[in-house]
Specification:
This is DNA-binding response regulator. It comes from Virgisporangium aliadipatigenens. Keywords: DNA-binding, Phosphoprotein, Transcription, Transcription regulation. A six-stranded parallel beta sheet has the order 2-1-3-4-5-6, with helices on both faces. The protein has 215 residues and is α/β, with parallel strands linked by helices. It folds into two domains: 133 residues, Rossmann fold (3-Layer(aba) Sandwich); 55 residues, Winged helix-like DNA-binding domain superfamily/Winged helix DNA-binding domain (Arc Repressor Mutant, subunit A), CATH 1.10.10. Strand 4, helix 4 and strand 5 form a beta-alpha-beta unit. The protein is built from ten helices and six strands, in the order βαβαβαβαβαβααααα. The chain is 52% helix and 10% strand. Helix 3 runs parallel beside helix 4. The protein starts with a strand and ends in an 8-residue tail after the last helix. It is elongated, with a radius of gyration of 17 Å.
Length: 215
Amino acid sequence: MVVDDQPVVRAGFAAILDAEEDLSVVATAADGQEALDGVGAHDPDVVLMDIRMPGMDGLTATAKLTEAGQRPRVLVLTTFDLDEYVYRALRAGASGFLLKDADPAELVHAVRVVAAGEGLIAPPVTRRLIEAFVDGSLAPRTEPSPVPDALTPREAQVLRLVARGLTNSEIGTELGIATGTVKTYINGLFAKLGVRDRVQATIRAYDLGLVRPRS
């Protein structure tokens, strides 16, 4: 589903995605409320969500969609690359963040990545977000949330490495365990933390105080 308040933009994104053999646009919407209604009617795998729209904005709609369950996954599309929007979108439950000036190939790739269960943030936005954490200008929360009792020391260790951006293979090398074992730990982490991908897990790692700016 493509959600954007500008008809030309909606039609353009829909045309790009419908041109791919493995992708199909099942619906479009002009605002957040239409998106919620459309998801109920069409059950899309991925929603491309604009942020600034009249009525219900994209951040509110994203939060409402993701709090309801595992589907759909939300890929936020915006002309605004401000760190505040990135962080708020991720907190709302988005699985990805892509600027509207991305190439069509980047858009298609982003949809496939998010549909496959991974998180994605456009590289320029990723760099800015990391820099903001490092210099302290973008702090997750003043006080960290308590670490869930069910989280074992090893799971907390794996979560820290996920938040550092390491792949499963790299985590396995770091801890001296098999890649398959790492995947098992990560799946368990996702279930215990109530997250769906590595991007959301990283946000939770900051919230829990397992990762700190400048660390």
